[in-house]
Automatic annotation (TrEMBL):
Keywords: Lyase, Metal-binding. It comes from Kribbella kalugense. One of its GO terms (molecular function) is methylmalonyl-CoA epimerase activity. Residues 1-122 form the VOC domain. It holds the Pfam family Glyoxalase. CDD domains: VOC. This is Lactoylglutathione lyase.
Length: 130
């Protein structure tokens, strides 16, 4: 068993698609539904298949993020990622070291609907194992 994707309901599909492609996601497919809704499947370059679905349901009105904490994206170099995203017009947060100098480096990014994304660069020792 494995997780294959998660879906985020978005208020403005084009705005969200522009945001996530700027982050680095690649658009795989657009699926129009009979009720006027649209699903868009995305993946990051290092992923083999879809990992994020943007779900646009215009009849449901604007998205109100509630109860959702965040999702995380692993990056190779957090300073380079922050610089790239900032140059592209996004607003990643400052680099943080929550585990001290030998732990992971993180930064926070918020999408157009208010979903929070944690950008993570693992230390040379790698991610924590169970």
């Amino acid at each position: 068993m494995k997780t294959i994707l998660f879906a985020l309901r978005v208020s403005d599909l084009e705005r969200s698609l522009a945001f996530y492609t700027t982050v680095g996601y690649l658009k795989l497919s657009t699926i129009p539904l009979d009720d006027g809704s649209t699903l868009v499947w995305l993946r990051l370059p290092a992923e083999e298949s879809v990992s994020l679905e943007l779900a646009h349901h215009p009849a449901d009105g604007p998205v109100e993020v509630s109860g959702f904490q965040h999702f995380a994206i692993e990056v190779d170099s957090l300073p380079e990622t922050i610089a790239h995203l900032t140059a592209a017009g996004l607003q990643p947060g400052a680099l943080e070291l929550p585990g001290g100098p030998d732990g992971p480096k993180i930064s926070w990014l918020t999408d157009p609907d208010g979903y929070r994304i944690e950008l993570v660069e693992w230390p040379p020792s790698g991610p924590p194992l169970p």
